[in-house]
Amino acid sequence: MMIGLLVVASASVPISIRLTNRPFYFMFRHSVFLILALFISAVILQISLHYWFKYSSILLAISFLFLVFVLVMGKSVNGASRWISLGVFNFQPAEVAKLSLFVFMAGYLVRKQQEVQETFFGGFMKPMIVFASLAILLLGQPDFGTIIVMLVTLFGMLFIAGAKISQFIALMVSGVIAIIALIVAKPYRMQRITSFLDPWQDPFGSGYQLTQSLMAFGRGAWFGQGLGNSVQKLEYLPEAHTDFVLAVLAEELGFVGVVLVLMLIFVLVMKAIFIGEQAFKNNQFFSGYLAFGIGIWFAFQTLVNVGAVVGIIPTKGLTLPLISYGGSSLIVMSIAISILLRIDYECRFLLQNGYSADKKINEKE
To answer: At 45, which helix (H) or strand (E)?
Structure first.
């Protein structure tokens, strides 16, 4: 978070001056989001996993309502209607939808684990229908990147739950066909694919953002130009403080800085997987599925963001976890980390007293 604050402060100076005539406008906003995220996380940390399980369906229903609301009365930015204006900042329901889907999925896998392992429609297809409903609403925004992250995380959670490989193969083939159809259906998606394959073919048009990002990486070399010395952030590189903040980090801190940040995220992901493994060993299955889901989510979103910035995959408009500017993303991911801490807490300490969130869940059922 602190690295993110520093890089956002540096990357956002030119756009802050142009829009507000204040060089650190976005840095101050990001600081407020960071403090708010930590405060909300401290509150979330007090909530037992039992309540997340109990109200998972309600949380998902609220996410559906938010997504419908954003389509009806959402704020449009750069041609995408993904935000609800709350006056002081714009709220992005898609971020809440990600977390709520994973919480719901973890509860579903506890309730229907045997069905998931044995039947196709009864256990495997029901969560896919829920996902498809969310995907339709997200396509209306449009937010293709969030759909991909949700789908991959969902597949990961189902795989951990013991779903059959044949089911995955069938759905993966269907998914690839659907993704190709969605790309072909919209000219701007097709343009992203072609510009990603050869951005230098049209460096001042469809390939402009990627070529500017690659220039930033090239200038950064091993140790970077120094904090604050990026040239590409001087409004050559679009979205320098949001989706493409890693390019500015690469230019200023170099290959070493990028590797350091990615290693920190990698350690966070590995810790999430370790916590999930410990939860399974303690028969806290809801906690285990949720921890693995959060770990897969963070890992894949990082992969997509980094891949888009360096030209490995087409641009998807996803933030770099805990680094990029964006209040909704920062707050929701902080909540996810608080849930991980709560899972770890219940595994380490409460089990010593014979307490288990899953035990409570089983008693209620």
So the answer is: none
pLDDT of residue 177: 76
User: Residue 77 in 3-state DSSP?
Assistant: strand
Angle at 115 between CA 292 and CA 297, to 5 degrees: 20
The angle at the Cα of 148, spanning 89 to 71, to the nearest 5 degrees, equals: 45
Q: Residues 234-283: pLDDT tens digits? A: 888 888 888 899 999 999 999 999 999 999 999 999 999 999 999 998 88
CA angle 295, 324, 28 (to 5 degrees): 130
Round to whole Å and give the CA distance between 53 and 350. 17
Query: What are the backbone dihedrals phi and psi of residue 91, each rounded to the nearest 5 degrees, phi first?
Result: -95, 130
Output the pLDDT for position 122: 60
Lowest mean pLDDT of 81-90, 101-110, 139-148, 149-158, name the range: 81-90
Residues linked to residue 84 through DSSP beta bridges, in sequence order? 91
pLDDT in tens, 64-97: 998 888 888 766 665 566 777 777 777 888 899 9
| Per-position DSSP letters for 326-365, written without gaps between them | -HHHHHHHHHHHHHHHHHHHHHHTGGGGT--HHHHHHHH-
Which sign does the torsion angle of CA 304, 306, 309, 312 carry?
Answer: negative
Residue 365: which pLDDT band, with cuts at 50, 70 and 90? very low
Q: Rounded to 5 degrees, what are φ and ψ at 43?
A: -70, -45
Three-state DSSP state, 80: strand
Rounded to whole angstroms, the Cα distance separating 306 from 263 reads 13
3-state secondary structure of 236: coil
Amino acid in the structure at residue 278: Q
Determine the pLDDT at residue 192.
64
Q: Which residues pair with 91 in a beta bridge?
A: 84
- pLDDT at residue number 78: 59
Residues 6+ positions from 249 with CB-CB distance below 8 Å: 3, 7, 257, 258, 261, 323
pLDDT, tens only, 33-60: 999 999 999 999 999 999 999 998 999 9
Cβ contact 258:246 at 8 Å: yes
